[in-house]
């Protein structure tokens, strides 16, 4: 009988069986696949759609796919997508009203909510940084007295297959944020891909649901050599971090340097394009719009993703609170690394590095913090 904490081993056929069992439970599987020159997250049907033999090279403002010298299925780090959109849709109809002979009839949720209705999801390939991001968003959307009903509904029945990182990317700094590279919580099964000799996966069971599914797979008990190989893979990822950030005292550091000249220097480069907030797995800014059709027969209230980098987001009567790019970048970075602690008891950054990779001018928040720290200490 499999149990929480057990370590097992499966091969590629065992991984295919895992996909089959998830599908048999009626789950929609979301995992990595190659599309449009990137490794993205999408609905997939099986092992054949995984990015076999592919990896990426990332740096500030740079992302390129490259072929590997092996057949690794998870030999990449983090693409432009996180799992956030499956629980916090980029566009969601909050309610819809339609004119009838007797007046308006309100249809709560509208068509978008029906399309985004909760289904049994399986997240395959979740990295530790993204699991920490989901835990942060759980605090944001469901941790207070006014929980977001859509988030809670979509998070209700999710099976998570995590992947422990065996290598780090050029913009990764999860070690600095204590969010990786090895998954420690938030998963049902955690896999470490092992390529030394036989292509296999060390499986760690993290929940009772994971244990029940593992019993339906063809597995063997992990040997000491398997565990040692997994530990070497994690150590390789730790040693290969492309970035680092000194986090000691960071909240007080940023609060004490709101007028630091580095804010002016970064504003000269920042395009206020909002790419960083769109790819960030923890950003949650949104706006609400009321729209009607031209005939006045339908009215909708729609929530869509927004960003603190847009002037409209901070607009109040009389003008924008953050009228300059300088103030918007300062708001984003200070909230992410400082005031998030005050609001939610944690940092808003998980060290995935997406904001660095997908910033067109290659602005690097780890360098910005280092520049402020260098003059502030």
Tell me about this structure.
It is a single chain. By secondary structure, the chain is of the alpha+beta class. It folds into two domains: 7-92 and 117-239, no CATH class; 250-295 and 305-376, no CATH class. Helices cover 32% and strands 24% of the residues. It has 13 helices and 16 strands. The protein has helices at residues 12-24, 110-115, 128-142, 149-154, 174-177, 208-214, 224-239, 250-255, 262-267, 275-279, 325-344, 354-357, 365-376, and strands at 7-11, 28-35, 38-43, 54-59, 62-67, 91-100, 103-108, 121-126, 158-163, 189-194, 200-205, 220-221, 286-292, 298-305, 315-316, 319-320. The strands form four sheets. The chain has an eight-stranded mixed beta sheet with strand order 3-2-8-9-10-11-1-12, with helices on both faces. Strands 7-6-14-13 form a four-stranded antiparallel beta sheet. Strands 4-5 form a two-stranded antiparallel ribbon. The longest helix has 20 residues, at 325-344. The chain is globular and about 65 Å long. The model has no long low-confidence stretch (mean pLDDT 92).
Write a concise keyword list for the protein shown above.
2 domains; alpha+beta; 4-stranded antiparallel β-sheet; 8-stranded mixed β-sheet; globular; 377 residues
């Amino acid at each position: 009988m499999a149990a929480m904490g057990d370590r097992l081993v499966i091969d590629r056929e065992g991984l295919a069986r895992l996909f089959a069992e998830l599908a048999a439970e009626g789950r929609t599987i979301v995992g990595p696949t190659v599309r449009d020159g990137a490794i993205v997250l999408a609905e997939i049907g099986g092992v054949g759609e995984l990015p076999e033999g592919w990896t990426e090279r990332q740096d500030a403002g740079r992302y390129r796919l490259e072929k590997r010298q092996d057949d690794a299925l998870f030999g990449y780090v983090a693409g432009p997508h996180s799992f956030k959109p499956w629980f916090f849709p980029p566009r969601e109809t909050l309610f819809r009203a339609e004119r009838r002979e007797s007046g308006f009839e309100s249809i709560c949720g509208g068509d978008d909510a029906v399309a985004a209705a909760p289904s049994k999801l399986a997240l395959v390939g979740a990295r530790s940084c993204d699991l920490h991001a989901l835990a942060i968003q759980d605090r944001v959307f469901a941790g207070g007295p006014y929980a977001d009903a859509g988030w809670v509904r979509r998070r209700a029945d999710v099976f998570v297959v995590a992947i422990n990182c065996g290598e780090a990317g050029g913009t990764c700094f999860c070690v600095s944020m204590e969010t990786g590279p090895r998954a420690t919580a938030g998963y049902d099964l955690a896999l470490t891909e092992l390529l030394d000799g036989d292509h296999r996966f060390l499986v760690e069971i993290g929940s009772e649901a994971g244990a029940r599914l593992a019993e339906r797979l063809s597995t063997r008990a992990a040997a000491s050599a398997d565990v040692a190989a997994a530990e070497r893979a994690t150590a390789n990822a730790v040693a290969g971090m492309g970035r680092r950030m000194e986090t000691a005292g960071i909240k007080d550091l940023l609060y004490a340097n709101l007028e630091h000249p580095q804010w002016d220097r970064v504003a000269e480069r920042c395009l206020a394009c909002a790419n960083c907030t769109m790819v960030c797995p923890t950003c949650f800014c949104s706006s609400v719009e009321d729209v009607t059709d031209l005939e006045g027969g339908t009215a909708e209230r729609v929530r869509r993703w927004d960003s603190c980098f847009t002037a409209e987001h901070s607009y109040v009567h009389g003008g924008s609170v953050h009228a300059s790019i300088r103030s918007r970048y300062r708001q984003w970075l200070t909230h992410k690394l400082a005031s998030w602690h005050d609001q939610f008891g944690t940092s808003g950054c998980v060290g995935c590095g997406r904001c660095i990779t997908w910033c067109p001018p290659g602005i690097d928040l780890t360098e910005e913090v280092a520049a402020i720290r260098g003059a502030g200490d």
